[in-house]
ABC transporter permease (Seohaeicola nanhaiensis), 267 residues
Amino acid sequence: MAERASLGLKIAAGAGLLFMHLPLLLIFVYAFTTEEKSYQWPPPGFTLKWFAVTWNRADVWEALSLSLRVAAISTVVALVLGTLCAAAVSRSRFFGRETVSLLVILPIALPGIITGIALRSAFNLAEIPFSFWTIVLGHATFCIVVVYNNAVARFRRMSGHLIEASMDLGADAFQTFRHVILPNIATALLAGGMLAFALSFDEVIVTTFTAGQQQTLPIWMLEEQVRPRQRPVTNVVAMVVVLVTFLPILAAYYLTRGTESVAGQGK
């Protein structure tokens, strides 16, 4: 039987959790405050009116729509390119394979401001105007990494004999992918896609350099904090962002639980 944690360890763990999550709880509290212009503690009162105000703010809906569209398309691009990269690196042997793997994961290791400056310089050099698609391209650089990491780990645990057996039984490449490969990597792709969506939805730094005059929801929130009109509205929107990013991450966690083994592993 595992040893029980000591009291000191429990206190330390609890303090760490409070340090990480207490600010989130404060955001939720301030979304209901009656105070409009400052963060007064304790709140002088509580109201639901800011939810109605937020619902009727056209700028919030525009920013939310842009963020959802960018995240959705960036995730699709990442699923396609990340899966192809993972398949090439894990199922093939060629000169420079590890270098290619390093280059694929490099964008998420670099500081976001470096990636943003590099992308902005490239777009300016190519005379590409800032638009919806420049934001998508910027987000795809790090979303691909998330999908790649999930897919390559699953590919490496999947036995190559399954693919060989499928081919021996007369299946073509598409049938092998559909009936053998995809069922084995589906949960990894779904988890990677959800994480990529969450990362794209709340990204700020790279978006700042690639959006031009457009505002995604995180950029809108940042500007509202600098030049606030109605502070509680920002907190209501922050609640939405927490939920939109938390739910995919939670789903990805449960989808990847118990998937340490795949069909044909070790055979």
Observations:
- Confidence is low (pLDDT under 50) at residues 261-267.
- The radius of gyration is 23 Å.
